[in-house]
Automatic annotation (TrEMBL), chains A, B:
The keyword Acetylation does not apply. Homodimer. Belongs to the tetrahydrofolate dehydrogenase/cyclohydrolase family. It catalyses: (6R)-5,10-methenyltetrahydrofolate + H2O = (6R)-10-formyltetrahydrofolate + H(+); (6R)-5,10-methylene-5,6,7,8-tetrahydrofolate + NADP(+) = (6R)-5,10-methenyltetrahydrofolate + NADPH. Its EC number is 1.5.1.5, 3.5.4.9. This is Bifunctional protein FolD. NADP(+) binds at residues 165-167, 231. Keywords: Amino-acid biosynthesis, Histidine biosynthesis, Hydrolase, Methionine biosynthesis, Multifunctional enzyme, NADP, One-carbon metabolism, Oxidoreductase, Purine biosynthesis. Residues 6-120 form the Tetrahydrofolate dehydrogenase/cyclohydrolase catalytic domain. Gene3D superfamilies: Leucine Dehydrogenase, chain A, domain 1, NAD(P)-binding Rossmann-like Domain. Pathway: One-carbon metabolism; tetrahydrofolate interconversion. Residues 139-279 form the Tetrahydrofolate dehydrogenase/cyclohydrolase NAD(P)-binding domain.
C-alpha cells in the first residue's frame, strides 16, 4: 500500500476562483472586499503565512491590510485596534495573527473582533455558535480539514475520527464540524494515555498538535486517512507536518501532504469568508 | 461485582448549604438573589423540574420567579421576555426551560439571555467561552457530571471517557469540561456505528441521550463508571435514566442512579450559579 496524497491545490483553486468572481461583483458595486490582518509578532513562520494570505487575497481581488503592531504591542493596544477595525465600514474581515506578545491567548483578545467580521472564527461567540449548530465562520483551518475530506469523497457519517490536539483554533472546532457531519469523534491531546492505541481505532486521524512527525505508522490502522494540520518550520525555511509521511507511506490509505495539503485550502476558505462577510453587510 | 451507586444527595446538600450562606449575605446587603425561569410549555416532566427548582431555590434563600408564557408563546414573545429579564436589575439568573413551542431551538433563543445572567449556559457565547477555556457558567447538567465524578474521587486525567449524546445543553459542554480535565473524550451519538464497541473502550461512560435503558452491560467494560444524565418520564409519573441499571449492576464499577444521581447536583449548581451571578454584579 502507498498512501494516496490528498493535495489541496485543486480544491483551493476552485474556492478561490468562485471567491474571485464574487469579489469582482462586490468591487463593481462599490464594495471592494477588504481583509485586515493584525500582526503583533516577529515570528518568521507567522510572517510567511501572513505574506501568503496577502498574496492570495491580492490575486483574488481582495484588499489585504497588514496591520503590524510590532512584537511589543500590549493586549490593550491590540484590542483597541481590533475594535477599531470592527467599527470600520470599509473592512469586512478581521484576522488576529498568532503568536501574540506576552503569552496572551487568542481567544481572550478575539472577543474584540465583531462577530460578523470574525472570518477566522476566533471570537468565542463564533466557536459557541459553531458548536450549537448556528451560522458562524468556522476557523478556516478546521473547516479545511472537512473540506479536503469532502473533496476526495471520504465519507464521514458513522466513521470514527481521532482529532489529535485540542486547541481552540483547530482541534476543538474541527471536532464540532466533524460531529456535525455525523462522525464519532475522539479528541486526544498531550495527556492522552497510549495515544497510538486510541488513534488506531480511527478511520480518519486529524493531526493538529504542532509536533513534527508525531503520527507514525504505529498510530494508524492500515488504510486510515491522515489529515495533517501541522505547519512546523524546518531549519531550511520550509514546513513540515505533524505526520511522519515516510513512516505512514506503507500503512495509511491517504495523507494530506505538508506543504500542499490543508494549507492552501485554509487560505482559500479565509478569503471565501471575507467575501461572504462583505456580501452579508 | 455490584455497581456502586454514586448518589448526588450529599454533594448537592453541600453545594446548597454553601450557596444558602452566600444567598443570606446577599440578602442582608440588600441584594436578594433572584432566578427567573421562563416556561413556554405544558410538558409535565418540565413542569415537575421547574417546581423542583423553585422549591430548592426557596430553601436556599433564592427567589424564583416562574414566568409562564404558555405553550402557544411565539419565539418573538419569548425573546422579548428574555431581553426584559436580562435588563431587570433585580433578576440575577435567567433560565429558559425546554421544550420550546413550535420546535424552536434553545440555542437560537438563548442568545437573548445576557451572558452574565446565563446561569444555565444556554447562550452560545457561554458555550464558546467554555470551549475556549474562558470564564462562563457551564450548563448545570454538564457541570454536574464532572462534579459528581470529582466528589467520588474518580480520576479523569488521562482516562478515556465516552459521552453518548451530542446535545448543545449536555453532551457537547460535558465533552469540553471533561477535555479540560485532561480526559480523552469520544462523543457518540445516534449515527455512531457499533456504539457498544466504542463505549466499551471507555473508563467512564456518560449517557445523555434521553433513551431509557440504552446503556446496558454490553456497552461497558468491567468496572467502568457510568454517569446517567437521562431523565425519561415513566408511565407511573417517575423518572428513569438512559442506563439499564439492572443490566449494568453486575458489570459496571459504579453508576449514578436516576433519580438521585446527577439531578440533585444539577439543581444545586444552578442555584450556585445564580448566587455567583448576583455576587458578580
Amino acid at each position: 500500500m502507498t498512501a494516496t496524497p490528498l493535495y489541496g491545490k485543486e480544491l483551493a483553486a476552485a474556492i478561490r476562483a468562485e471567491t474571485a468572481e464574487r469579489a469582482a461583483i462586490l468591487a463593481t458595486s462599490g464594495r471592494p472586499p477588504k481583509l485586515a490582518v493584525v500582526v503583533a509578532t516577529d515570528d518568521e513562520s507567522s510572517a510567511w503565512y501572513v505574506r501568503s494570505i496577502a498574496k492570495a487575497a491580492g490575486q483574488t481581488g481582495i484588499t489585504c491590510d497588514i496591520v503590524d503592531l510590532g512584537p511589543d504591542a500590549d493586549a490593550e493596544a491590540i484590542v483597541a485596534r481590533l475594535r477599531g477595525l470592527s467599527a470600520d465600514d470599509t473592512v469586512h474581515g478581521v484576522l488576529l495573527q498568532t503568536p501574540l506578545p506576552g503569552g496572551a491567548a487568542l481567544q481572550d483578545l478575539a472577543s474584540a473582533i465583531a462577530f460578523g467580521k470574525d472570518v477566522d472564527g476566533a471570537n468565542p461567540l463564533s466557536l459557541g455558535r459553531l458548536a450549537a449548530g448556528l451560522p458562524a465562520h468556522p476557523p478556516a483551518t478546521a473547516e479545511a480539514v472537512v473540506a479536503i475530506l469532502d473533496h476526495y469523497g471520504i465519507e464521514l457519517a458513522g466513521r470514527r475520527v481521532a482529532v489529535v490536539g485540542r486547541s481552540t483554533v483547530v482541534g476543538k472546532p474541527a471536532a464540532h464540524l466533524l460531529l456535525d457531519r455525523n462522525a464519532t469523534v475522539t479528541v486526544c491531546h498531550s495527556r492522552t494515555t497510549d495515544l497510538a492505541t486510541v488513534t488506531s481505532t480511527a478511520d480518519v486521524v486529524v493531526a493538529a498538535v504542532g509536533r513534527p512527525g508525531l503520527i507514525t505508522a504505529d498510530h494508524v490502522r492500515p488504510g486510515a486517512v491522515v489529515v495533517d494540520v501541522g505547519t512546523n518550520p524546518t531549519p531550511d525555511g520550509g514546513l513540515t507536518g505533524d505526520a511522519d509521511a515516510a513512516s505512514l507511506a506503507g500503512r495509511a490509505g491517504a495523507l494530506t501532504p505538508v506543504p500542499g495539503g490543508v494549507g492552501p485550502v485554509t487560505t482559500a476558505l479565509l478569503l471565501r469568508h471575507t467575501v461572504a462577510a462583505a456580501t452579508a453587510r
